[in-house]
Automatic annotation (TrEMBL):
<dbReference type="InterPro" id="IPR017871">
    <property type="entry name" value="ABC_transporter-like_CS"/>
</dbReference>
<keyword id="KW-0472">Membrane</keyword>
<keyword id="KW-0813">Transport</keyword>
<comment type="function">
    <text>Involved in beta-(1--&gt;2)glucan export. Transmembrane domains (TMD) form a pore in the inner membrane and the ATP-binding domain (NBD) is responsible for energy generation.</text>
</comment>
<keyword id="KW-0201">Cytochrome c-type biogenesis</keyword>
<keyword id="KW-0547">Nucleotide-binding</keyword>
<keyword id="KW-0067">ATP-binding</keyword>
<comment type="similarity">
    <text>Belongs to the ABC transporter superfamily.</text>
</comment>
<protein>
    <submittedName>
        <fullName>Cytochrome c biogenesis ATP-binding export protein CcmA</fullName>
    </submittedName>
</protein>
<dbReference type="InterPro" id="IPR027417">
    <property type="entry name" value="P-loop_NTPase"/>
</dbReference>
<dbReference type="InterPro" id="IPR003593">
    <property type="entry name" value="AAA+_ATPase"/>
</dbReference>
<keyword id="KW-1278">Translocase</keyword>
<dbReference type="InterPro" id="IPR003439">
    <property type="entry name" value="ABC_transporter-like_ATP-bd"/>
</dbReference>
<dbReference type="Pfam" id="PF00005">
    <property type="entry name" value="ABC_tran"/>
</dbReference>
<feature type="domain" description="ABC transporter">
    <location>
        <begin position="3"/>
        <end position="200"/>
    </location>
</feature>
<dbReference type="GO" id="GO:0005524">
    <property type="term" value="F:ATP binding"/>
</dbReference>
<dbReference type="InterPro" id="IPR005895">
    <property type="entry name" value="ABC_transptr_haem_export_CcmA"/>
</dbReference>
Length: 200
């Protein structure tokens, strides 16, 4: 599997954010997207996820599931946790599993993996910032998709959470997945750098 972008141009609010951007990532590989604030890291992830339309260039996945679009083969985790505060932890995860569809894995096991099994019935409104992030990460495990698009994924995680997350990323890459992560700090696993714009 290979995800590649060629000559991508991104325009937001009528202003060019970047142009002529090329990248490629293969199965088992992680790309760390770096660049100064406002350089377009989040925008690039949203372009790959199909949430924005490029003003130029192409993005394509080869060797994936021919019956699914690129967007359907991506997990997009934004920098804000997309949770419904009134639903419990388990209900939030079930919502995402239903929404995303596809082959579904054991939600209770995913919650245990991210250390939230004790909080399954707690309304998401009561979670701490790090717990909310852990719940978002559980989505990655409950519905399997090969391309993980992660925006500042380590925000709010404590040292044990970082260790856990690095383990999840390595497992995913070991299964032939790929990771494109926007980050201002080292990702914690071996990765190639994709820089947008000049040096910070
Ligand atoms: N909805 C929008 N309408 C207009 N401009 C936008 C919109 N969203 C983002 N932008 C602009 O696009 C540019 C790139 O934003 P983006 O969020 O992709 O940057 P980033 O590299 O992820 O930044 P950061 O490091 O601060 O998270 C910024 O100048 C931003 O103001």
């Amino acid at each position: 599997m290979q995800l590649s972008g060629s000559g991508i141009k991104c325009v937001r609010g009528g202003r060019e954010v970047f142009a002529g951007l090329d990248f490629a990532a293969a199965s088992g590989e992680a790309l760390a997207v770096v660049g100064r604030n406002g350089s377009g890291k989040t925008s690039l992830l949203r372009l790959i996820a199909g949430l924005l339309v490029p003003a130029g260039g192409t993005i394509a996945l080869s060797g994936g599931d021919a019956e699914l679009s690129l967007a359907e083969q991506c997990h997009y985790l934004g920098h804000r946790d997309a949770l419904k505060p009134a639903l419990s932890v388990a209900e939030n995860l079930a919502f995402w599993a239903d929404f995303l569809g596809g082959e579904r894995f054991d939600g209770a096991k995913s919650l245990a993996t991210v250390g939230l099994d004790h909080a399954a019935h707690l309304p998401a409104a009561f979670l701490s910032a790090g717990q909310r992030r852990r719940l978002s990460l559980a989505r990655l495990l409950t519905i399997r998709r090969p391309v993980w698009l992660l925006d500042e994924p380590t925000t709010a995680l404590d040292a044990a959470g970082l260790d856990m997350f690095c383990g999840l990323m390595r497992e995913h890459l070991g299964r032939g997945g790929m990771i494109i992560a926007a980050t201002h700090i080292p990702l914690g696993i071996e990765s190639r750098e994709l820089r947008i714009g000049g040096a910070v």
